[in-house]
């Protein structure tokens, strides 16, 4: 029973609102005089937007690959056989350090051995032997990073540990 009463009240209220909306409809507006309608001209400058142009001055090229991080510095001398291999491919066989001019023997991947001194060019990134110690040699490489700045890194080629000792 209460749902029938609520439904009847809802119908009555909705009929009142719809009847009132029909009686208060706005009157037809009078036609606008022909002299009031003028064509509005849009300025030609507002239509043209400035074309975007990328200015790369002072910035890194966003389309350049970051995988090309290590580019060697240009070489001034002719390439030695040791400059054909990466430092990771070379193995230190032995070192002689008790003299004024220490030396070390390095085994290349092609099976040949080379004697290196301080200052010998070695590695693909234009590296040079900086120091020769009892169990390792230290090589300093110069290369360009992805921001085109010259960087130096020191890497060591270690003497392998003897087995069975």
Automatic annotation (TrEMBL):
It comes from the Bacteria. It holds the Pfam family PilP. Keywords: Signal. Residues 1-21 form the signal peptide. This is Type IV pilus assembly protein PilP. It comes from Geoalkalibacter ferrihydriticus.
């Amino acid at each position: 029973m209460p749902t029938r009463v609520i439904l009847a009240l809802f119908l009555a209220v909705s009929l009142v609102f719809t009847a009132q909306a029909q009686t208060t409809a706005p009157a037809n507006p009078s036609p606008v005089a022909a002299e009031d309608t003028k064509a509005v001209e849009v300025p030609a400058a507002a239509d043209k937007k400035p074309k975007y142009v990328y200015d790369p001055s002072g910035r890194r090229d966003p389309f350049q690959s970051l995988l090309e991080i290590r580019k060697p510095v240009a070489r001034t001398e002719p390439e030695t056989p040791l400059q054909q291999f990466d430092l990771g491919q070379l193995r230190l066989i032995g070192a002689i350090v008790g003299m004024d001019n220490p030396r070390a023997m390095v085994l290349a991947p092609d099976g040949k051995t080379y004697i290196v001194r301080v200052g010998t060019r070695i590695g693909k990134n234009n590296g040079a032997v900086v120091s020769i110690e009892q169990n390792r040699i230290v090589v300093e490489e110069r290369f360009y990073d992805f921001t085109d700045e010259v960087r130096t890194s020191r890497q060591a080629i270690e003497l392998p540990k003897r087995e069975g000792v």
